[in-house]
Structures are given as C-alpha cells and as structure tokens.
C-alpha cells in the first residue's frame, strides 16, 4: 500500500470532507459532491482525482454519469497499520 499518497490525499480538508460525504455507502456523482462546496467543478475534479490516485475512492460509470464511492479496503489497511501503535505488550 502506498501510504505516502494516502496521507497526502488525507491532508487536505476538502478531500476529507468529500470522504465524509461518501461514508454512508451511497454512490454520488461529481455534481452531487460539488453541490456541497463553493468550489469550481474543476477544483472538485482535481480533488477527486487525487483521492482516486490514492485509491481512497473508486468510480463506476453508469450510462452518462460517473459515480464515486469509498474504497473501504484502503481504510481497513490504514487502520490495521495504525492498530500496531495501540497494542500494549504486558
């Protein structure tokens, strides 16, 4: 797993907000995501691209629309990595 890309993607508050929008498991189009921000469509597209490169989201095309959803497996990998810091040895 490429943690550098993951943590870079997570470092931006807009990208974290996009992930929160997708956390309910419902696929959303770029337009639906964009409607929650006062940013240009190009800026949202850039953020979505970074999240895709980090594998935090995945996209599916249905007819003329592209929908985005969380890639839960990457979150699980990150949580597994973090969990090593909480295992107390006695």
UniProtKB/TrEMBL annotation:
Q: Which SMART domains match?
A: HTH_ARSR
GO MF term list:
DNA binding; DNA-binding transcription factor activity
- List, alphabetically, the CDD domains matched: HTH_ARSR
Top-rank lineage group of the source organism: Bacteria
HTH arsR-type domain segment(s): 1-90
Q: Keywords in UniProt for this one? A: DNA-binding, Transcription, Transcription regulation
Q: Does the keyword Transcription regulation apply?
A: yes
Asked if NAD is a keyword of the record, the answer is: no
Q: Which Pfam families match?
A: HTH_5
Annotated TM spans: none
PROSITE patterns (alphabetical): HTH_ARSR_2
Q: Which PANTHER family match?
A: TRANSCRIPTIONAL REGULATOR, ARSR FAMILY, TRANSCRIPTIONAL REPRESSOR SDPR
Put simply, this protein is called DNA-binding helix-turn-helix protein
